[in-house]
# Entry
Amino acid sequence: MDATETLKNTPLSAHHGSLSAKMAPFAGWNMPIQYEGIIAETLYTRQAVTCFDICHMGEFIVRGDLKKSGLDNIISGHIDNLGIGSCRYSSILNEGGGVIDDLIVYRKAQEEWMIVINAATIEKDKNHFLKHLSKNAHFEDVSCGLGKIDLQGPLSREILKTIAPGAQGLGYYTFTETDIMGEKNIVSRTGYTGELGFELYAPAEKIAAIWERLTSDKRVKPAGLGARDVLRLEMGYSLYGQDIDDDTSPLEAGLEKFLDLNKDFIGKKALLQQKRSGLRRHRIFFKTLSRRSPRHNHNIYISDKNTGIVTSGTFSPHLGYGIGMGFVSTPLDAGQAILIGDDTLKIEAATCKKPFIKNTSIKT
# Structure
């Protein structure tokens, strides 16, 4: 971000100030990184329940026939069988097969969709949709008017029923439009932590009242983006801008299961060519053999040979050692000994399978 650019504030910024949150720039927004502390908030999310300010995320509404509107050609995943009231993780790609953004598609009606996107890519995504949607499709960017709170953790259902009882029975990756404190809004059974959780959408001017109601419950603690980053990495979830970007294909990132290669979509030809010619790099997950933490842009070595780069790394307070993901030039089996670091420090590590954290409450 340009140093002269003014950071945007979410509708909850005053609440973060009153809680003495540590704030920092993220995707052009002034966002809470931590309140009590990253480790404490990470542990509490998996033990009980936390709420996150996610009002910086973007939302689009698209109306029209799935095929005729061009939407099916824009989304790389399988969405024609998505039921009303269901949502699905997917992506939009450029012609070279790189990930413009990863997103979640909500089917609100037979010909109405809500697309939830990353904060840093709102304008880029908007231009992509407008370029490729047909003229008879309706497109609306509702990002500025919507607020979003994530309620995550094993106790989230118990908390949810106090403010949105009509949503407590939601199945995984489904949503409903239901009463939230006297107003009908969307609640989805989704999240980015690997725990039982819900995402609540409401008009920006109403979101503060929901936050106040949630945090007035002594069982609920606020958590910042620092904890959110640790939690998502413990599950092996990608972060856009670090683990995936315009120059990374879903095949390289290990996200092929989220593609629908039986239909036409933007970027498919490039992906098929990659499958024929072989991938230039491969996603791996790894854990350190100590409490030392891998970091973004650390090198990955086999013996003394530099074979790749770390895209995300952190210390896992649940496991007691460092974890991370990155790219290497050749595929590696789980259990392969590697080194992480640079010319001055190399950390012993081994490749492994994701998720790092198992037996969570995510589907309970």
In short: The first strand starts at residue 8 and ends at 9. The mean pLDDT is 97. The domain at 8-55+144-234 is CATH 3.30.1360.120 (Gyrase A; domain 2).
